[in-house]
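Please fill in the sequence for the structure shown.

STRUCTURE ENCODING:
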């Protein structure tokens, strides 16, 4: 049966309207773009900053640290990334494994696994030092400092030194060509071959330890600090920075890290239980601080004094690169799939390693312009 004329006209009209609106909708983005280019350039979204080149370590895959039953494994003695040279980066995994990687290719160079917890580890351009015997109760079990060759991971000709207990902190100090050791409240500077030791002073507690030039800073969660001048053995300056006294309540801020510059400047990373990390920049310990939000909740930090740069990350997985006076230079979002647990600059300051809670390490090229 022939279709009525009005039905045919209605269908034709519907098709025409469909085509017209289809063309109109297709051209709207072009019109909007043209108008923006002509008269609304100030409304253009800012371009995202260029991401630094990244190398991911090829074979470093460990269980999520959050799954560890021991609080020690996720606390002070947790997973850590650190540098020996600009070419070799090291990772401690679960405190029982030390791995060395090429920072350019990400390939594993060697790994050593041990049957005990390793509470402290550091490296020179030639050796890796770590403490042993920390949780060992067996009579006659070795306690002290053990030394490996950096190139191979094998025990060196002089494999270590015996002490009454395992050191709590080890830091290699290249300028002094020596190993700073905090052992049962005694601070000592060892030679690289571990054959000579120079007493520096005593400190009761378990602090965060950092260094710059000839100074070693010990800082505790309460805010209490001590500064060793390695040119003056036996002389230690104890102080609490202005605004740095902290208590023990759940809402009370606590110190999570601190860094002291050779010129007397002090950087404190202050945290509490509510994911509100803050960074405090003191020109001097007794001076008022400039305070900024870490933008990372619970924050981890690394500093490189020769290039005057500070890196901040943490539970929010962002990354801030700042000057050591507090000016933000680079801001990156979501650099990892899980919280960032450890950061460290390479000796030259040209690279930054970040270890996240999913067991991955990324190396960022952060060369100074």
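FILLED IN BY: designer on duty
SEQUENCE:
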């Amino acid at each position: 049966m022939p279709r009525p004329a009005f039905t045919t006209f209605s269908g034709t009209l519907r098709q025409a309207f469909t085509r017209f609106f289809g063309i109109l909708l297709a051209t709207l983005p072009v019109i909007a773009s043209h108008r923006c280019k002509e008269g609304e350039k100030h409304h253009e979204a800012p371009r995202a900053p260029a991401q630094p080149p990244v190398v991911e370590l090829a074979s470093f895959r460990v269980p999520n640290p959050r799954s560890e039953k021991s609080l020690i494994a996720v606390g002070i003695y947790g997973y850590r990334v650190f540098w020996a040279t600009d070419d070799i980066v090291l990772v401690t995994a679960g405190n029982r494994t030390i791995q060395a990687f090429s920072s350019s290719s990400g390939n594993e160079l060697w790994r050593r696994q041990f049957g005990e917890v390793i509470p402290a580890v550091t490296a020179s351009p030639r050796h890796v030092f770590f403490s042993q015997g920390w949780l060992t109760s067996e009579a006659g079990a070795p306690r002290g400092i053990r030394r490996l060759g950096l190139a191979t991971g094998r025990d060196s000709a002089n494999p270590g030194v015996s002490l009454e207990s395992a050191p709590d902190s080890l830091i290699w100090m290249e300028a002094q060509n020596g190993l700073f050791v905090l052992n049962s409240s005694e601070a000592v500077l060892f030679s690289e071959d571990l054959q000579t030791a120079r007493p520096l002073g005593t400190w009761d507690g378990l602090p965060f330890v950092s260094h710059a030039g000839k100074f070693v800073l010990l800082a505790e969660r309460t805010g209490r600090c001590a500064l060793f001048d390695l040119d003056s053995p036996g002389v230690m300056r104890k102080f609490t920075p202005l605004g740095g006294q902290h208590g023990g309540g759940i809402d009370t801020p606590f110190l999570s890290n601190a860094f002291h510059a050779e010129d007397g400047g002090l950087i404190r990373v202050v945290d509490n239980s509510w994911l509100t990390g803050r960074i405090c920049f003191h020109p001097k310990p007794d001076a008022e601080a400039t305070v900024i939000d870490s933008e990372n909740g619970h924050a981890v930090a690394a500093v490189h004094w020769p290039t005057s740069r500070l890196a901040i990350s943490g539970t929010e997985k962002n990354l801030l690169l700042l000057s050591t006076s507090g000016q933000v230079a680079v801001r990156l979002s979501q650099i990892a799939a899980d919280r960032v647990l450890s950061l460290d600059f390479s000796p030259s300051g040209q690279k930054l390693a970040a270890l996240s809670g999913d067991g991955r390490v990324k190396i960022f090229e952060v060369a100074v312009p």
